[in-house]
Structure formats: C-alpha cells, structure tokens
Amino acid sequence: MEPSSRIIVALDCDNRAAADEIVSRLGDECRFYKVGLELLTAAGPDVVKRLVAQGKQVFLDLKLFEIPNSVAGAVRAAGALGVSMVTVHSMGGVGIMRAAVDAARGFPGLRVLALTVVTSMTDADLADIGVDDAAQQQVLRLARLADKAGCHGVIASPQDVAVLRSVLGAGALIVTPGVALPGESPAEHARPDTPRAAVAGGASHVVVGRTVTRATDPAAAFRDVRADIAS
Predict the structure, then answer these.
(1) What does the pLDDT read at residue 162?
(2) 20: annotated binding-site residue?
(3) Which of 65, 118, 179, 197 is the most exposed place for a label (fewest CB within 10 A)?
(4) Beta bridge partners of 179
(5) Among 3.40.50.2000, 3.20.20.70, 3.20.20.210, 3.50.50.60, what is the CATH number of 3-230?
C-alpha cells in the first residue's frame, strides 16, 4: 500500500469551519480522514457527505456500544453516508459486533472495525473496571472475539500491532491511533509509537491528529509522517 493511503488524519475539531480549513490546506496530500464524535456532534452528517463528495475516504469513529438493533441501524446510516470504515466497541460482545457486520453487508465499500482497548487506558485503568489482565492480553482477547464475529479488523495501539498481525493474519485491517513522530509528545495515549514502527509491525493504517492538524504547515507535516512510514 502506498504510504499516503495508510495515513488517516483525525479531524478532531469542534466546528465545521475548522475541519474544512484543515482539509483545504492538505489538499490532494491526504485521501483519508477520521470523523469522530466531537465533529459529528458539532457539525452533523453533512461534514461526512462533503468529504465523500470531495473524493475522500472517511473513517467514522463512532465506537458503537448499544443493543444489536441500534448498532445495526447506526451502521446502515454510516453506509448510506458513503463512509469506508466504522467502529464498534468489542467489549459489547459478539452479538453487537455481528449485528454491525451483518448491517454492513449492504454496503460493499464499508468495513467494520472493532475497538479493542482505548489507547489512553493503562493496566491500572483496566483493573479499575474489573479486568485483571494486562492491556495487551485484553487487546488479544477482544481481537479474537472480533475476528470470530466477522469484523474486518481492529483498532489498537501501535505497541499491539505485531502480535495482532500474527494472530489475525495478513487480510485483517489494523488501524492504529496513538502515533507520534520521533521527539513529539504522544499526548493522552498511554501506549504510543511512531508511524514507522506501527507500519513495520503490521499496521494497515495509522491515525494522526495534532501532528498534522496543529502544525503551522499541515501539508508539510503530513509529508513528514509519510516520509517516516516510507523510511
């Protein structure tokens, strides 16, 4: 896969104008954007429609965790918007994930990805909610469950990629938030690594946010990420 196709820029904005400005400044450099709960709540589905109309791919990061019928309805709505990826929370279990996968069948271009363990969570955070295993053990458990449910791939930290690739095989998508260029702060991510390390470990895509979106020159920052992957 060509390096630019692996990079998803997170539009973690609180208004449409800010998102539009980032997309405009990146121009043809970026082909893939993540729209999360903040921007979707602030700007509505039109922001997704606009990106799709511009020929961009959209990763709609909803982290769906509801009863199966509600999850299926949300996935169908995502498919109707023309998005390429949508997320469901693997901790909801096989029933919820299967409902998402079944709902996506009517949209051949839509892939369902299961969130394993949020990249800000530590072993101590998991213990707080009654999970005694270390984060990577929980990631593997949930990834296997997602594979059993028919999900097209998973969301996990860069530090989990290599072992996930060995478990899920070559065909699964593994999308990694929590990447930062060498010397940059990983922000709130507890299990970070570089874009280069994530892809070398087997990630299909990396999600970058502030590295690009808060740069003085977002297009130049995007090229830095691409160069890190290519190296």
Answers:
(1) 96
(2) no
(3) 65
(4) 193
(5) 3.20.20.70
